[in-house]
Design goal:
single chain, about 210 residues, Alpha-D-Glucose-1,6-Bisphosphate, Chain A, domain 4, 2 domains, seven-stranded antiparallel β-sheet, three-stranded antiparallel β-sheet, about 20% helix, Polyketide_cyclase/dehydratase, SRPBCC family protein, START-like_dom_sf
Length: about 210
């Protein structure tokens, strides 16, 4: 349980200081009596980094006129992500070779034009159903990205994309950030429909790497 106080936080008691979004980046540090302390200039009242439930959760879904196996092939074709996933900003070390559970890689993820190179771990992968990525950024925030497919007819599939921000953001900013994230995910599913249409017609090339 986090020992954060509304007015003052001792760094030795809250290791999240400097990384937790509840603590202002402009906090002033001082040494008093050998105990390093910090006067919090802006504090939401509790340390979001240590909380279990996500600070933000948003998702978007759409139905595409292709079978599950075909849309799964597209979702896991990493070089195509730049065409339909606005959160994706590139692969610092190249796309991952596989989505097997436990695979780790680096990826640039961002929102509202701000991108960060994050460490990503595949925490779940059930072929033709769903895969889950856990991303840890340099600002102390974790994000969980979930991609799932569900057949609604032999040639129709529901696709759902969800994002949860697990820490590193002050709750007073969460409502604003969630609205922006929801718009981003709505764009994701719209772009995905366009790519699927190209996939069906042959105008969206399958990548070779």
């Amino acid at each position: 349980m986090c020992a954060c106080r509304p007015r003052r936080v001792h760094l030795r008691r809250c290791r999240g200081f400097g990384r937790c979004g509840s603590h202002s980046a402009g906090a002033r540090r001082s040494d008093r009596g050998g105990v390093r302390s910090a006067r919090i200039l802006q504090l939401s009242g509790s340390c979001d980094l240590h909380r279990g439930p996500p600070v933000i959760a948003a998702h978007s879904e759409t139905i595409v006129d292709v079978p599950v196996a075909r849309i799964w092939e597209l979702l896991t074709d990493f070089p195509l992500w730049e065409q339909w996933l606005p959160l994706h900003g590139g692969w610092p070390d190249g796309p991952p070779p596989t989505l097997d559970k436990g695979t780790q890689f680096r990826q640039r993820l961002g929102h509202l034009g701000i991108y960060d190179t994050v460490s990503v771990t595949v925490t779940e992968n059930t072929a033709n159903q769903r895969f889950v990525l856990l991303a840890h950024g340099s600002y102390g925030a974790d994000a969980r990205l979930t991609f799932s497919v569900d057949p609604v007819a032999p040639q129709r599939t529901r696709v759902r994309v969800g994002v949860e921000i697990l820490g590193g953001l002050a709750r007073p900013l969460a409502s604003l950030a969630k609205r922006g994230l929801q718009k981003n995910l709505n764009r994701t599913t719209r772009d995905l429909v366009v790519v699927v249409r190209g996939f069906r017609s042959g105008t969206t090339p399958r990548s070779t790497g």
